[in-house]
Amino acid sequence: MQADIDILHHSDFYRVLDFKCRCTDHGTSPREYVQSFSVSFIRKGNFIYNVFRHSYDSYNGKILLTKAGHEHTVTHAHHVPDECTIIQFSQRFYQHLIDHYHLKRHWFFGNSDLHSILLSTDVDLEYLHHQILINKKSGNRLLTDNLIMELVHQIMANLDIKQAISPIGDKLKKHHLVTIERAKEYITNNFSNDISLSAIADYCYVSPFHFSRIFKTFTAHSPYQYLQKVRLKNSEWLLRQTDWSVTDICFASGFNSLEHFITSFKQTYRRSPSRFRQSGK
Fold this sequence. Notes:
Blueprint: E1 3-10, E2 14-21, E3 32-34, E4 38-44, E5 46-51, E6 54-59, E7 62-66, E8 70-76, E9 83-89, H1 91-100, E10 116-120, H2 123-134, H3 141-159, H4 170-190, H5 197-204, H6 208-219, H7 223-241, H8 246-252, H9 258-269, H10 273-279
Antiparallel strand pairs: 1-2, 2-9, 3-8, 4-7, 4-9, 5-6, 5-8, 7-10
Helix pairs in contact: 2-3, 4-5, 4-6
């Protein structure tokens, strides 16, 4: 497959790749061999991942978990080149993962006939993924290691939660995948500001009414709900990683009222921000 691949992060147990496909046709790639257990976040485009009796419709909002030692092909669904973040793990780390989470008899990890699975992301996973991407600029390896470990833990926690994945029609994906990609990009980069529905819709080149309907179809959240979840996840991260005051974290995360922030945080985490920090959770 024709692609540009850059290494964003590298350690003794993982490496993070920025994968940008250069294919613009609708063909199927030659067979490729997967050499390591990997987690792939689809950022842009739409492709079908074909692996031993299964074909996975992959696009923004999906994650591919792929075991080592198997072949696959990729069929491009339309002309937009695919972009993914691929996290590859060492065999030693993979074995630690199996032992730590007791996965030898797991329905996926313990099944030799199941080589890959497709999961839906949630706001927590997408936030962590974004932090991994932007942390390249800081060069803080320990922070990246912590983000990777939290990402793995979050995926393991979500793995056995039954996901109601409603199929998205090909026509809707063809015309509006880019809408969702741009909307998430805008929210992620501007959540600390007082952004409006019209501002997001304008960035995506659609009307506010049309945008709200499309966004909820793809994400199962309204734009406001999604924005609120991003702000809460950012506040959680800052409470755990910094010694900033609760007030500073409140405004840095995009809330314009300390009272509203504390109420929203308690509704989600069942404790106040101060209690959350003290508990070390």
